[in-house]
UniProtKB/TrEMBL annotation:
It holds the Pfam family OCD_Mu_crystall. This is Ornithine cyclodeaminase family protein. GO terms for biological process: carboxylic acid metabolic process. GO terms for cellular component: cytoplasm. PANTHER family: KETIMINE REDUCTASE MU-CRYSTALLIN (PTHR13812). GO terms for molecular function: oxidoreductase activity. Belongs to the ornithine cyclodeaminase/mu-crystallin family.
């Protein structure tokens, strides 16, 4: 059984390779059971959530990811999410590899965000606003720049010093990046608003979103989490990564309860977009929303790339 640390997991997962691989994976058939979700409560400790996400396909691989989500870790200076991934031979069940689940999750999440934008953001979208400064948020400019001509990046965080530090990091990477001092003003001028937070109360308000903008919601994945208010869905064409989002995403549940979205008004999934079964953006002035809760198919696709890259290297 091989072990892939953070560096070895990251190396084959550049977005120029990963985004097209996800597009191909969503266009084919795979077995992706619903995730298992368990609340963790221990005496004297913050509450956490454990997610178990299996998937397998005819390519011959089976993968299982375990994610521990503890939002209170930020106060300890620790990431709020820790994950491990085990890849197996789907024909025999033999364990093949243990991979860095944090790196796998972050890169596939950012890549799925970019994949959604490749169908839903305007072709000339160049101003990207990122909400959040965590592991996934840090990757979003590179991911979106692989599918759209991003030349201006703003970042907002509830801790301004975090936004300033991340903007400086992006500038060092070659992006024209600045920290946003006011969230409303930043949302109003953005072509793409990408939220990668663990928020439990809405951050983005629908009246702030400009005509022709694309709202990307990839942080929340439970009914108790939400990054956008109900008006964000009013008058917009809404897409989801998988139908599981309709049961798991707090902002979708709020919008359905509030009457600004009906479940049968959701335009399609990533699979439907990738297969050409539904239309993406249909006009330069329409607003689009992409809500993702994550799919084990994305993890399996990324892990397969890591394994195949290692197998192709000379001994």
């Amino acid at each position: 059984m091989k072990h892939f640390d953070e560096t070895a997991t990251r190396q084959p997962l550049d977005f120029a390779r990963l985004v097209p691989a996800l597009r191909a994976a969503f266009a084919t058939e795979a077995q992706v059971p619903p995730r298992h979700v368990h609340a963790i409560e221990t005496a004297g400790a913050d509450k956490g959530t454990v997610l178990i996400m299996p998937a397998w396909s005819d390519v011959g691989f089976l993968g299982i990811k375990t994610i521990n989500v503890f939002p209170g870790n930020s106060a300890r200076g620790l990431p709020g999410l820790h994950a491990t991934y085990v890849l197996y031979d789907a024909r025999t069940g033999v364990p093949l590899a243990m991979m860095d689940g944090n790196e796998l999750t972050a890169r596939r999440t950012a890549a799925a965000s970019a994949l959604g934008a490749s169908f839903l953001a305007r072709a000339d979208a160049r101003r990207l606003l990122v909400l959040g400064t965590g592991r996934v948020a840090r990757l979003l400019p590179a991911a979106h720049a692989s599918v759209r001509p991003i030349d201006e990046v703003l970042v907002w965080n509830h801790r301004p010093e975090g936004a300033q530090a991340l903007a400086a990091q992006w500038r060092a990477e070659g992006f024209n990046a600045q920290a946003a001092t006011g969230l409303e003003a930043a949302v109003r001028q953005a072509d793409i608003v990408s939220c990668a937070t663990l928020a439990t109360a809405p951050l983005v308000r629908g009246e702030w979103l400009a005509p022709g903008s694309h709202l990307d919601l990839i942080g929340s994945f439970t009914p108790a989490m939400r990054e956008a208010d109900v008006r964000c869905f009013e008058g917009a064409r809404t897409f989801v990564d998988t139908t599981e989002a309709l049961q798991k995403a707090g902002e979708l549940l709020d919008a359905i309860a509030g009457g600004t979205l009906r479940a049968d008004e959701v335009q399609g999934t990533l699979a439907a977009l990738c297969r050409g079964e539904c239309a993406g953006r249909m006009g330069s002035e329409e607003r689009t929303v992409f809500k993702a809760v994550g799919s084990a198919l994305e993890d399996l696709t990324a892990a397969t790339l890591v394994w195949q890259h290692a197998e192709s290297m000379p001994p």
